[in-house]
Amino acid sequence: MTIQKLMVIGAGQMGSGIAQVAATAGLQVIVHDIKAEFVEKGFNSIKKNLSRDVEKGRKRQEEMDEIVSRITLSTDLTDAKDVDVVVEAVIENMQIKSDIFRKLDEISPPHAILASNTSSLPITEIASVTKRPDKVIGIHFMNPVPVMKLIEVIRGLATSYETYAIVEDLAKRMGKTAVEVHDFPGFVANRILLPMINEAIYCVYEGVATPEAVDEIMKLGMNHPMGPLTLADFIGLDTCLSIMEVLHEGLGDSKYRPCPLLRKYVKAGWLGRKSGRGFYSYP
Ligand code: CAA
């Protein structure tokens, strides 16, 4: 099966990025969210990104127009009735994801693959609410989606080889490289990345160094494109905390305990770039 029509559930930073790369790869894309204003916001960010490509001479205006014309907007989940693949990219909440997958399983055609962009929640558990666990898979894009080359593809316990092969082919068409991992807490990307970020937060919490100093050390000393605290603000501190909690609970080792300063910031509503304040301020 070749994927022709893809639906993205959740038009936030990740969902809109996924819609952009899928439409750029020539797929018909439906962008869905619960409110029209959320869908519009996601669509505007796609158009903004594509316009920048046109301004910089990386795309022609006609190409942009074609890409945009392949995107339709939706607030109705029943629009999943004739899609080949759905990529869910809503908040990291198992209850919400389970509800969505249960509904999608009823609405979408039997051949459709149901994928989650979850950054750490178990794919096997999400699949268990459907009658097609062989067609449920994790497609974990990295942020910013249009730029990052990796898709971490997570096989749940029952995910079939056929489903994996279709997703691997889809990743290639979107100009990405799929890397296969199995379903364990945090998968691989976040199992390695988040403890580093958490440790960087401990360095600030314990007064070892300022956020600026920690970031400078990792940028200049390790050649990271962003320091870990700038990256934490970029990912969202609520998402960072939720991934650390999944690692801590799922792997049961105290080395994964979330830093109290991370908890405090999240409780204060300091969620990073998206809320205007995290380790840094974003006026
Ligand atoms: N959306 C689309 N394109 C973007 C973008 C965005 N949000 N941000 C940057 N870009 C593109 C632009 O095309 C830009 O080029 P132009 O300015 O010519 O248009 C190009 O990237 C380079 O951007 P900048 O020059 O502004 O800045 P930069 O060179 O520092 O690169 C970066 C920006 C690519 C984000 C880089 O800093 C980087 O790689 N940072 C690390 C990102 C990272 O680690 N991501 C993984 C996060 S973890 C995750 O996603 C998993 C999870 O589950 C939490």
TrEMBL record:
Keyword Chaperone (UniProt): no
Keyword Oxidoreductase in annotation: yes
UniProt domain 3-hydroxyacyl-CoA dehydrogenase NAD binding: residue ranges: 6-183
Pathway: Lipid metabolism; butanoate metabolism
Keyword list, A-Z: Oxidoreductase
InterPro entries, A to Z: 3-OHacyl-CoA_DH (IPR022694), 3-OHacyl-CoA_DH_CS (IPR006180), 3-OHacyl-CoA_DH_NAD-bd (IPR006176), 3HC_DH_C (IPR006108), 6-PGluconate_DH-like_C_sf (IPR008927), 6PGD_dom2 (IPR013328), NAD(P)-bd_dom_sf (IPR036291)
3-hydroxyacyl-CoA dehydrogenase C-terminal domain location: 186-282
This enzyme's EC code(s): 1.1.1.157
Top-level enzyme category: oxidoreductase
Molecular function as annotated in GO: 3-hydroxybutyryl-CoA dehydrogenase activity
Gene3D superfamilies reported in the protein's UniProt record: N-(1-d-carboxylethyl)-l-norvaline Dehydrogenase, domain 2 (1.10.1040.10), NAD(P)-binding Rossmann-like Domain (3.40.50.720)
Entry's family note: Belongs to the 3-hydroxyacyl-CoA dehydrogenase family.
Protein name (database record): 3-hydroxybutyryl-CoA dehydrogenase
Annotated organism of origin: Paenibacillus germinis
